[in-house]
Design goal:
The chain has 267 residues and is an alpha+beta fold. The chain has helices at residues 24-27, 41-46, 48-51, 84-88, 91-102, 114-117, 139-148, 182-189, 211-224, 260-265; strands at 2-5, 13-16, 71-81, 122-131, 151-160, 167-177, 180-181, 199-204, 227-234, 236-244, 251-257. Strands 1, 2, 5, 6, 7, 8 and 9 form a seven-stranded antiparallel beta sheet that branches.
Length: 267
């Protein structure tokens, strides 16, 4: 368990949830020596059409799935915003990304979509709250969120999962408050199931990785697994609506304050 002081509030000790209670470690890609990394079906359906639409592995649609070349009806979720500018001011993040840019698979990363997503970087806390029509957030839930106060989060990297193989993420580690995962508090406020994996989708592959390329990615994942990239204080959450899983055309429907309780009690 990592203990440190909150940079925004000197003297306040912050304890972060760790891999013993979160599911990152057991949800990561298994890289087999001498084997390629193949984009999985979920990725080829939801992501690959958006970054490499002419790739022969693209799955345009499947019966019973609402994707059509990576697009779908608007889906609304409650998410944790991540400041792209703050991330890119982090020396640790810059060093990690520099490794990716010089890796043997660098040409297979869709670098062009990063600026298109920069203003909507996030980790999903409560997914699929509604489709087509934005959900109504109950007054009681708003009160609970407003009374939580700012949440301290640490981003670490890099993460490749066992689902959506082809997408590379940063991992969000929430603070523990009174022995509880603060993201669980958010999820409970909305009556949602508690989860233990919160990832910030950042990079997308445009093709399978050859064995040597897969080994290089495995090495980067391992080297940066325990490295903090950015610590920040979240004061708001977004209700986000998107018609694709890369949020290329997403809209922030509403900003929900996590500090309204302090505002109500201020003189």
């Amino acid at each position: 368990m990592k203990r440190d002081h909150d940079d925004a509030h000197p003297g306040r000790e912050v304890t972060f949830c760790d891999d013993a209670v979160l599911t990152y470690d057991r949800s990561r890609t298994t890289f087999e020596p001498g084997k390629p990394l193949l984009l999985d079906e979920a990725y080829r359906l939801a992501h690959l059409p958006l970054v490499a639409p002419h790739h022969p592995g693209v799955i345009a649609n499947l019966p019973g799935r609402f994707y059509d070349m990576g697009r779908h009806p608007s889906v609304f979720s409650l998410v944790l915003p991540v400041d792209d500018a703050a991330l890119r001011a982090s020396p640790a993040f810059i060093a990690m990304e520099s490794e990716l840019k010089t890796a043997p698979f660098a040409a297979k990363i869709a670098w062009d979509i990063l600026p298109r997503r920069a203003e909507r970087l996030h980790a999903t806390l409560c997914g699929s709250l509604g489709t087509d029509v934005p959900p109504s957030i109950a007054p009681a839930a708003r009160t609970v969120l407003g009374d939580l106060g700012p949440l301290t989060v640490e981003l670490r990297g890099l993460f490749s999962g066992n689902v959506n193989r082809g997408r590379l993420y940063l991992r969000a580690y929430p603070e523990r408050r009174r022995g509880q995962n603060v993201f669980h508090m958010v999820q409970s406020a909305l009556g949602r199931q508690q989860t233990d994996l919160y990832v910030v989708g950042l990079y997308n592959l445009t093709d399978d990785l050859a064995p040597a390329e897969a080994a290089a990615l495995a090495g980067i994942v391992e080297r940066w697994w325990h490295c903090p990239l950015l610590r920040f204080e979240a004061r708001d959450l977004w209700l986000l609506g998107a018609r694709d899983d890369l949020v290329l055309d997403a809209a922030i429907i509403e900003t929900l304050s996590l500090d309204a309780g302090r505002q109500r009690t201020s003189p």
